[in-house]
Amino acid sequence: MIRRVAGAAQVEYHDSLPSTNNRARELENEGAHDWSVVWAGVQTAGRGRRGRRWQAGTGEGLLVSVLLPEAWAPMPQAPSLAVGLAVARVLDGWLAPGSAEPVVEVKWPNDLMVEGKKVAGVLCERWSGERLGRIVAGVGVNLTQSEDDFPQEIRDGATSMRMLGAGSVDGSQLLADILEELRSMDGETAEEVLAGLQARDHLEGARVVGEDGVQGVASGLDPSGSLRIRTAEGVVVHLVAGSVRLVPQGE
Ligand code: BTN
Questions:
Q1: Is the CB of residue 83 below 6 angstroms from any atom belonging to ligand 1?
Q2: 61 lines ligand 1 (CB under 6 A)
Q3: I want to staple 105 with a disulfide (CB 3.0 to 4.6 A). Which of 38, 114, 164, 202 is the partner?
Q4: Tell me, what's the pLDDT at 106?
């Protein structure tokens, strides 16, 4: 079914799909227009980063993938951070309209956090074959879940717009807002995007450990979007990819 949403070249809506990113990849291969969007009511094989699953019951989340133009490059080495910033700004508008202080934080590299819990995630992918495809930006926003709706293993760390008091969020409007923000970010300099991320840095000053065991204090992002970790020896390590976990107090 084709839906009309402001800012989209076309929106292909499916009640159910394995993964909107997979379908967007097919559209990319078929030469679909920039800003084409795939939207699903539910995904049967929704994907998160690093092989993780992204689960949301029917209608519980906004599950969309956007075909970004080749030239859309507010942060070329770390597009998921730039997309995350766009979504964070939009969610702020729903959660704290008019507030000058950011509410939604970005947890490097792709989690959107409020009050220490994840409300949305971003999965940017591009596939190389005979040619390098355009970036597919997959966005999942938890909308209507209550605590019990989340799988046991993520329950403590997950939240939804409803749980955060946003009331009923219209998916079409939220998607239109995200597209508008993504489009307008194209006019921002890399410095502005970096500053926007620094202002929402969930990890700033926290003790973290990376997958490869490097441990230290998260100390902001470098201009390419890598996470800086200052180790106990005073060495600054730049994490280009992967993920980190917060080190609990006393560990
Ligand atoms: C993460 O937090 O690890 C990223 C989650 C990204 C989930 C979205 S939902 C829409 C799109 N389709 C997918 O299969 N994944 C992304």
A1: no
A2: no
A3: 202
A4: 98
The structure's pTM equals 0.96
Q: What is the pLDDT of residue 131?
A: 82
Query: Which residues, 6+ apart, have CB-to-CB distance to 187 below 8 Å?
Result: none
Among 249, 212, 242, smallest CA distance to 107 is for 242
Q: At what angle do helices 79-95 and 190-198 cross, to 10 degrees?
A: 60
The tokens describing 115, both together, are 């009050």
Q: Over the stretch 196-208, which tens digit does the pLDDT of each residue have?
A: 999 999 999 999 9
Atom in ligand 1 nearest the alpha carbon of residue 120: 2
- Residue 64 CA to residue 45 CA, distance in Å, equals 14
Nearest to 80 by CA among 229, 225, 187: 225
Phi, psi of 122 (to 5 degrees): -125, 135
Residues of the chain with pLDDT under 50: none
In the prediction, which pLDDT does 248 show?
Answer: 83
Cβ of 36 less than 6 Å from ligand 1: no
Ligand 1 in reach of 20 Cβ (< 6 A): yes
Cα(46) to centroid of ligand 1, in Å? Answer: 6
Burial of 166 (0-12, 13-18, 19+ CB in 10 A): middle
